[in-house]
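Hello,

Our lab assistant flagged a job as stuck in the queue for most of the afternoon. It eventually completed. Since we weren't sure the result was trustworthy after the delay, we are filing this so someone can double-check. Below is the sequence as submitted and the structure that was eventually returned. Let us know if re-running is recommended.
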Amino acid sequence: LAKLLAKQERFDAAQEVAEARPAEAVSEYRGILAAEGNDAETVRVKEAAVQSLAKLLAKQGDAGAVRALLTDLRPLLAVFPKAKTAKVVRSVIDIISTIPGTTSLQIDLCKEQVAWARQEKRTFLRHRVEVRLASLYLETKEFQSALALIGSLLTEVKKLDDKLLLVDIHLLESRTHHALRNLPKAKAALTAGRTAANAIYVPPSVQSMIDMQSGILHAEEKDFKTSYSYFFEAFEQLNNLDDATNAVRALKYMLLCKVMVNQADDVASVIATKAGLKYQGTDLDAMSAVAKANIDRSLKALEEALKSYAPQLTADPIITAHLLELKSTLMEQNLCRIIEPYSKVEIAHVASQIDLPLAMVERKLSQMILDKKFEGILDQGNGCLIVFDAAPKQVLYPAALATIANLDKVVTNLMGKSASIMA
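-- returned structure --
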């Protein structure tokens, strides 16, 4: 008991001097880890010392020292309970992820831990580190490596029937397929994840990620109303968990859905709610600028918002994809409004009216003609757009075809009846 109290006192002393004298605190933490004893209370103090030491080293930006710490801890981890070992290793990897620019180091570290876990036959730890490694592959756009690792994980985990881990793997698989623009497989993986989640209790953090992914996939199918409801569910759970980063992301997606269904007027009221005010900042300012551009139908304002808030808008591939679609829609609406009074108009005049480069306007007009948004041709020799009157719809021929189809059905039925009578 005296030894345990001494370790606890050393730990408390290290905590006190961590800010003022970090080198002394590091020495104290290492001393606690090197001390003898493996009973439950000693293991608890050592676990706390590992996390505090890793956080202190990460605060100093020494990712290499944190990586070396896991290697140095292997003799200690060998006597820890397996679940406790998995918790310690994952928490240290999470701490390294807070240091900017360490993605490649995290990948190497995960590979080392996977090899060690396989050697020590620690399947529980290996599976969870492999899931983290697959997510890092996704982050670095190594999609094939991620899918190969996910495939082998699914085979093993299904045999063990670890439902919670299975949910995480299916969710990761769905995100990877979505990044590859393979929506059918992304939906199938998400459905499999939901099926596994329905059989167990799922922590709110995992459920919020399921809802977030569901919202993203529905948005891809242009079902923005359903998508909004999923993002709202995810936002409420993340707000309750005080996960500010993901909560802001979910809130931005909610506002994006409002913009995409032409309800940009509601953006200000959503931001003004109690939960919305909690996350006021440049991210929400960016979405407000996009909403204002949509209300004003101003392509120039949208371009300015994309430039002014590039880190908040273009850094997220999901927001970027939908805003590019919005930009295209606004450009088409503005072009149609400008050319509507004319039967022949100079392309340079259209470009000056919409305040965009001539080449971009010319390219968009040719695309709209090919997509049959209006009837016309580009006279590039004279630099003009010639607009034709819309041809009247032919109603006679479709009606004639429908009549012939109905007559065919009647004759076929009569033939069938006469054949049965003759028989």
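-- support follow-up --
The delay was a queue issue, not a problem with the job. The result is valid. The radius of gyration is 30 Å. The beta strands are 344-346, 376-379, 384-387.
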